[in-house]
What does this fold into?
Amino acid sequence: MNALVTLQAEFSAWMRGSADTLRARVLDTEKADRDTLLRVYRDAYALRLIEALTTDYPGLLAMAGPAEFDMMARAYIAAHPSRHPSVRWFGRDLADFLAVTPPFAGTPDAADMARFEWALGEAFDAADTEPLTFEQLAGAPPEAWATLRLSFVPALRRLSLSYQAPQAWQRRDTVPPGELDVSAEDGAVDWLIWRPAADGDAQFRSMAPDEAAALDAALGGAPFPEICAVLSAYADSAEAAAERAAGLLRAWLDAGVVDDAAWG
Amino acid sequence: MTKVADMQFGLGLRHQHYQEIADQPGQVDWFEALSENYMVAGGRPLVWLDRIRRDYPMVLHGVSLSIGASDPLDLDYLAQLKALAARVEPRVVSDHLCFTGHAGINLHDLLPLPYTEEALAHVATRVARVQDFLGRRILLENVSSYVRYAESQLSEWEFLAALSERADCDILLDVNNIYVSAFNHEFDPRAYIAAIPPARVKQIHLAGHSHMGTHIIDTHDHPVIDDVWTLYAEALRRFGPVPTMIERDDDIPPYADLVAELERARRIAAATLMTPEKAA
Ligand SMILES: [Fe+2]
It folds into this structure.
């Protein structure tokens, strides 16, 4: 199988822009020289992957404009070739790439936008579950609350962003390409991303610092009294903390992000 | 053997048309879902897939099997495909006679194989393993290609015909791809059709393309051209009433336009096959 391996290695190298040893294996035709024909593959390779990124990252495109987005996409394609059978997953390393790679690392709002848009995509086709309802949880016995732990739906994502990427993302179609500005926050702001309906789009909202801390504790498997303890650092009294915990729990249940509760 | 009157006409399932497909059952006989689009955990794609499957037969069509690659078969991918097939219960499962990547990198394109004895033996072994794993026969589709290798010993049609017999797999014949490759590589498309074993052809693809003057690119962004319709009639005369569908992947028109284009396939099939000696 040596000849086949070599040919395929050369084809892959050609597609990805390295030296053209494939050329010697390919025939000219009456109408077209082999360089023209080989370029069909190389051009299509880049365009297909750029299109995938365009679909996943419309906010980034609105920030960068087509020319800069194209340059950014080609740099990413070279650094992170696809290793998944589905092009759906090709863009998953883009935020990390932008955060550490010059010149993109110099504009950190881009990495924040990429992080946000990828999380929206993850929430969009995460597994479906039947979320826990308030009525179901209300049926728990009083003694359950001492050890009650929550689990969350697969579509839940939680981000901390230093730039107002979600706000800018909502304006992505209202400004000319390349002119979407993303303001910096004073500090990091916490965001909750989820999918209210199985066949719906992802939704998002910012969280106050106490909600983010409580959610992190809950995601980490802390029982309900521990979540109240976390909240007491933000509240005037233990009663206020418990009240806030109950309010947050209600909000999470109503949003459909709590998958289940267990106790004992 | 399918009777001409029962011949089924389908379309590629595209998200732009989900609502109309669900709202207007009966205009199209079946749909072809792109397997990779539904290899996700949940959300809207699977909700619509399940909903449309309730009203229509389906087939599954993949682009990442990479049956001709020298990398090992991707068992995770095959497991996902098998799970999707269990969910959809498709009439057939198909992919392409090509390779799509190398050394762990997916190039996301249908790249032509060298038509050598070595490649034939390699692909035949892999097809057998895939069919064992899936527990069903698969269809392999001829691809459009832009380059031809000096080392090829067989024509593409000899390779495909031999593969179907040696691996005991079926064929998804893309008539547009025959037309495109025939123009690009300067062979007679009718010779291609004449060399394919009729018993193996279980589905036909039709599509549009982009003519660049010196070569044709298989873009699936235009209606089917007249010369391809003519070649389709030629294929029907040899292969009989094979289930036929139109692929459209770019510049997706309104659903009604594709339904109307599919009507043309029905008319051509009726005119070609409903002759007195064949109508029995
Ligand atoms: Fe096709």
Chain B touches chain A through 48 residues (CB under 8 Å). DSSP finds ten helices and twelve strands in chain B.
